[in-house]
Design goal:
5 strands, elongated, mainly beta, single chain
Length: 79
């Protein structure tokens, strides 16, 4: 979902679910749910600031193990 607050500022909310093989011994699969927010702001025509916040929730079916990962990043792009 994309929301444009002003002509210079926008926010994007995204969600993704993937099913893959587990990297752990004894576990057959992995459900990975990702939710994130990315915000962009143009200071000038040639200068873009980006901030991203992501939460990843890993579930291993048949196991009590659940992993939560949090990722935050910022970037300043000069074009």
């Amino acid at each position: 979902m994309l929301w444009t607050a002003t002509a210079l500022t926008s926010a994007r909310l995204f969600a993704l679910t993937t099913i893959s093989e587990s990297p752990l011994a004894g576990q057959s699969g992995l459900y990975e749910r990702t939710v994130g927010l990315e915000m962009n702001h143009w200071f000038r025509r040639w200068l873009l600031a980006t901030a991203t916040f992501v939460h990843v929730h890993d579930v291993y079916p048949g196991s009590i193990r659940v992993d939560n990962r949090y990722i935050a990043s910022t970037a300043l792009t000069y074009m």
